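Case study 2.
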Amino acid sequence: MLKPHQDFRWRFRPSFFGNTLFYCSVEWGAAGEVHWFDVYDQVRDEDRCTICRWLIKETGPCFTDEEGESGDSTCQSWNEIGR
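Prediction:
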C-alpha cells in the first residue's frame, strides 16, 4: 500500500516471446473505488522506455519521462472490467 507521493520500483527482463505484461490496481476514497491499468505491456513499452514511470491521477494513469514530467497527451484511461 502506497501513500500519496510514494513510489514502488522493481526490475524484470522482458520475455523473449514478447508477451510480458504487468498490471497495477489502485484504490482510494471512502467508497474504495478501484481502477487498474497495464503498467508494462511489452508490445507497447519495449521500445518506449527502459525506466517506465507512471503518475496516477483520478482520471487515469499518465506515462512520464525519466524526470517525472507528464503532459495530458501521455495520459490514458483506466482498463475496462473484464479486459
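The first helix runs from residue 42 to 45.
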